[in-house]
Design goal:
mainly alpha
Length: 432
């Protein structure tokens, strides 16, 4: 058997494993978000992960993948619908030595993560129908465009933007959509007092939150290291190393910041610190040295906690802090390569230039900044137009009565915890 054939088999197996790890992150989001919200909404919050991934799968196969990676222009792809076309149709992915079906599956997993992030801004008050409409449009019209700009041969990729696994493409997109939804939906009932001071609405299960965070941490090895799309030079191992170092530093940075600012070593804050660090290193994992990964992760974890407190005090009710964890940290991670990109790693990856701290000047920092601004503006504008129109035509939010009773019963007809919440069962329990 030829060596090239063996390598293709190894690369294909690695990409398949990586895709499974990233798809498995849906379980992490289900636990994290359900644990971070109230018991009366837990089934709804967890169950929407299956719904959103199902919608993303069909929409991305039919249209989104072609817009992202199909041959087209610098703004979007114009070919490759339903994975159709010849070898030139997906020229942006021609470097990856794996079948097209695996390329699609791996990229689909990324879309699922981005959409899961967006739902954080909808949590505990949005109608189920909103998930259907926004999920499809996000997968067809929003995510693929930014993906094409950076990874599909678009204008940001041509400028040399460094976003190895998607701090901007995946995380910032989802976070901006979550922020727009948060603002248009308004705060949950009881979140703020008349003087706009916030009330604590704790999640119902910190153990779920921690387990979700651990599953996401593990899944991130597929997310970042899998983005090498190959095994030949072992570079995926280095990417895994920087990913893990950043996550560890983020946990420490967040819990120390929580203790300093609030006097409490908050467990959910520590979990969010891990996630913020992972979001930040996602862009930089292939471009920065190990020590820089620790710096990036620590700063992202610490700063994200501070922003979550700040935004809440400003009247923004982001139930799982999606914008802080994935938006602020996504910006930090994307911008970080403009400072920390190592010349040896830039040469190895062949993307962009060295960072400011290595004598590369402001060129890469400028490109990274333009990428963040361009992506944020596009996603923000399209998300706002879509959600604003939906708000006027069909409404985004359930009724106050439905919100108070919980989305499990009002949207699905049953409780996630029936023995705790269903009156017919709780009364029978007391009688016994």
């Amino acid at each position: 058997m030829k060596e090239s054939t063996i390598m293709m088999y190894m690369d294909s197996l690695w990409v398949m494993v990586a895709a499974i790890l990233v798809i498995g992150m849906q379980a992490g989001f289900a636990l994290l978000e359900a644990g971070s919200t109230r018991m009366k909404n837990s089934g709804h919050v967890a169950g929407k992960q299956i719904l959103s991934f199902a919608l993303a799968t069909i929409a991305f196969w039919a249209v989104g993948f072609g817009i992202t990676f199909g041959e087209g222009n610098s703004l979007f792809g114009t070919s490759g619908w339903m994975l159709g076309g010849d070898s030139k149709t997906f020229e942006a992915l021609s470097w990856a030595n794996v079948p097209l079906s695996l390329k699609f599956l791996f990229q689909l997993a990324f879309v699922g993560v981005s959409l899961a992030i967006a739902w954080g801004g909808f949590a505990e008050r949005a109608k189920l129908s909103v998930y259907f409409i926004f999920g499809i449009v996000f997968t067809v019209l929003i995510y693929p465009v930014i993906g094409h700009w950076v990874w599909g041969g678009g204008w940001l990729g041509e400028m040399g933007m460094q976003d190895f696994a998607g701090s901007t493409v995946v995380h910032l997109q989802g976070a901006i959509a979550a922020l727009v939804a948060t603002l248009l939906l308004g705060p949950r009932i009881g979140k703020f007092n008349k003087d706009r001071t916030p009330n604590l609405i704790p999640g119902h299960n910190q153990v779920y939150t921690v387990l979700g965070g651990i599953i996401l941490w593990i899944g991130w090895f597929g997310f970042n290291a899998g983005s090498t799309m190959g095994t030949a030079d072992g570079f995926f191992g280095y990417v895994a190393l920087t990913t893990n170092l950043a996550a560890a530093a983020g946990a420490i940075g967040a819990i120390l910041t929580s203790k300093f600012l609030t006097g409490k070593a908050d467990i959910p804050a520590m979990v969010n610190g891990v996630l913020a660090a992972l979001v930040a290193i996602t862009a930089a994992c292939a471009f920065v040295e190990a020590w820089a990964a620790i710096v990036i992760g620590f700063f992202a974890g610490a700063f994200t906690f501070w922003t979550s407190v700040y935004f809440e005090r400003k009247g923004i009710d982001d139930p799982i802090y999606a914008f802080s964890v994935h938006g602020i940290a996504g910006i930090i991670g994307t911008i970080s390569t403009g400072f920390f990109a190592s010349p040896r790693l830039v040469e190895q990856t062949g993307v962009g230039k060295a960072g400011l701290f290595y004598g590369g000047g402001f060129d890469q920092l400028f490109v990274q900044t333009i990428g963040v601004i361009g992506a944020a503006v596009y996603v923000g504008v399209i998300s706002f137009i879509l959600l604003f129109v939906m708000k006027k035509l069909v409404g985004l939010r359930v009724t106050p009565e439905q919100e108070i009773s919980g989305l499990d019963i009002s949207e699905h007809g049953s409780y996630g915890y029936p023995e705790h919440l269903d009156p017919s069962l709780t009364s029978a329990k007391k009688a016994n």
